[in-house]
Amino acid sequence: MSKTTIERIDTLQEKIQQLENEKKRLLNAQKEADRKARTKRLIERGAILESLVPGLDTFTGDQIKAFLEKTVQSDFAKRILDGITAQKKETTIEKTTDKE
Asked: Across the chain, how many H-helices and E-strands are there?
């Protein structure tokens, strides 16, 4: 027996709801993965900083921030960062060119 229009609409509504729930689940999974990646990155970089600066564990957050701000703003650090940025751009261009 053929489904009525109302039954077909109800079936479609159920499918729509299932797809919306699946979309929410996937978005939540992506957000969680992004959070985990960020947390891992912050921990790794914090560990690198602590390994390079003696006694860093005794500094306050404000002291660490002030140290990093002054360090990064120096001309020497700016040249290093510019070099790293340029190197990263070259690598990105090479990867893009290789794919074509």
From this structure: 3, 0
User: Could you say which DSSP state residue 73 is in?
Assistant: T
Beta-carbon contacts of 10 under 8 Å, excluding residues fewer than 6 positions away, are none
Two structure tokens written together for 7? 């039954």
61 Cβ neighbours under 8 A, 6+ residues apart = none
Helix-strand-coil split of the chain, %, nearest 5 = 90, 0, 10
List, for residues 14-73, the tens digit of each pLDDT value.
Answer: 999 999 999 999 999 999 999 999 999 999 999 999 999 999 989 999 999 999 999 999
Per the document, the length of the chain is 100
> Between helices 61-72 and 75-99, what is the axis angle to 10°?
80
Sign of the C-alpha dihedral, residues 84, 38, 41, 50?
Answer: positive
Contact 72, 81 (CB under 8 A): yes
